[in-house]
Amino acid sequence: MNMQHLPKPTMIRDWRRVIIFSAGAFCLFCLLFSLKIYAQDTTEVKADSLGAQTPVSEEVAAAPAPAVSQPVAAFTGDPHSYSKTDYRKGSRLFQGLIPFESGTHNCASCHYVKPTQEINWNPSAYELANLMKKSENYKLMDVMNLPASLRLMEDHKGMTITADEARYLEAYLHKIDVYGPGELPAYPIRAAIFWGFGLLMLLALVDLLITKKIKYYFIHGIVLLVGLGVHMQFAYAEGKNLGRTPGYEPDQPIKFSHKIHAGENEIDCRYCHHIADHSLSAGIPSTNVCLNCHTVIRNGTNSGRFEINKIHYAAEHNEPVQWIRIHNLPNHSFFSHAQHVNAGRLDCTECHGEVKEMHIVRQVEDLSMGWCLTCHRTRKVDFADNPYYQMFDRLQDDLKNGRIDSISPAMVGATDCMKCHY
Questions:
Q1: Is the residue at 6 inside a domain?
Q2: On the CB side of 304, how many CA atoms lie within 13 Å of its CA?
Q3: Is the pLDDT at 237 greater than 70, yes or no?
Q4: What does 95-126 look like in DSSP terms, one character per residue?
Q5: In this predicted structure, what is the pLDDT of residue 310?
Q6: In sequence order, which residues have a C-beta less than 8 Å from that of residue 17 and are 6 or more positions away?
Q7: Which of 97, 123, 171, 402 is close enough to 92 for a disulfide, judged by CB 3.0 to 4.6 Å?
Q8: Where are the beta strands (DSSP E) in 99-252?
Q9: Residue ending a domain, choose from 317, 335, 364
């Protein structure tokens, strides 16, 4: 008998089907994911008007000769007042793809278009667009050709713009104002794992109940059990982290640096957060508190006048600065700064971390119930010289007679449920 014509074992055929089945499912998932990313990228390109960039040499050759500077009207904010050519040229000028009449300058190298991971003291393109929209007297030609601060003189040294260049830049900034600054790209590895296993489980069920291509049912069982295990792990991890945001570090409407104010200038936390001593919340400083210093200090070392001018704009227009709160507890939890700052005599850094070393404040601790209870059970209270604890006569007597050597918040009821969840 010719061995080459013998039928291959069923097990080998089934395992090949499993491999082909899994590879096909993975390829389909990757294709769908790639199409989603492509769609997002295409939308961002349209939003930023950065598509189909022509080489610098071709653009320069196609561009008309710069016109003589003419007075330019204020930023209109009307999309119909700018053509597609204006948007396109403004985009290329801003990003240094074509030169200005005064030379080649890359505005985007300082005035970032997309959000950044670290603090950038220069105003973003979106902030410039906002300023142009809010202020009728703000003109790019005046700012660029007649800078009013030392910071602008240094950063824009040797750079001037013509009337046409100002119009192109205004058109591009209008585009930024309409579509926003964009978002940081996300790399959803965990989401890919979650949905990948979900797709494999779905295909295993379809084959088990309908197609029946794989004869060995234990293969379906392995796929389903592993998939369920992965999904249960994700559910547990997400449930455990629900409401916890350690590492939360949002950009604020004004680039306020705690490292400069609390660190280098040694401003006490309670000067700005002055209600922490007698309130549940530490409070968000009002514009008047900022103006106590910045009525005199009008230029920042890193940001010039741009960020400090936001404070004055808010005060002049009677608008509060929309600061973003970082440390939040659930609504069903009671927490008092006054209790912890006065009776507990805690330093701010014990909950908020070394804020004086942060340009952008971030949440350091997870603020979970377990974290609070651990502190209440292990911390030693300054009991003897603390007026708040004079009412606890029995504990005071035990402490004086040596029956106990220290007292924790748990011993005075700090771990009772009704203390925080009343």
A1: no
A2: 15
A3: yes
A4: TTSS-BTTB---GGGTS-SS--SS---SPPHH
A5: 92
A6: 213, 214
A7: 97
A8: none
A9: 364
303-353 confidence digits (pLDDT tens): 888 999 999 999 999 999 999 999 988 888 999 999 998 888 899 999 999
Domain boundary among 364, 399, 414: 364
Q: Which amino acid is at 301?
A: T
Range(s) of the domain holding residue 404: 368-422
Q: What is the CATH number of the domain that holds 124?
A: 1.10.760
Same domain, 72 and 175: yes
CA–CA separation, 412 and 395 (whole Å): 9
Query: Apex CA 106: angle with CA 156 and CA 155, to 5°?
Result: 20
Backbone angles phi, psi at 103, to 5 degrees: 135, 180
Q: Report, in angstroms and rounded to the nearest whole number, the Rg of the chain calculated over CA atoms.
A: 31
Contact 305, 361 (CB under 8 A): no
Report the phi/psi class of residue 386: left, alpha or beta, with left for phi > 0 and alpha for psi in -120 to 50: beta
* Cα within 13 Å of Cα(406), Cβ side: 10
Residue 379, judged by CB atoms within 10 A of its CB (0-12, 13-18, 19+), counts as: middle
Contacts of 36 (CB under 8 A, 6+ apart): none
Instruction: Compute the distance between CA of residue 383 and CA of residue 410 in angstroms, rounded to an integer.
Output: 13
Distance CA 28, CA 51 (A): 28
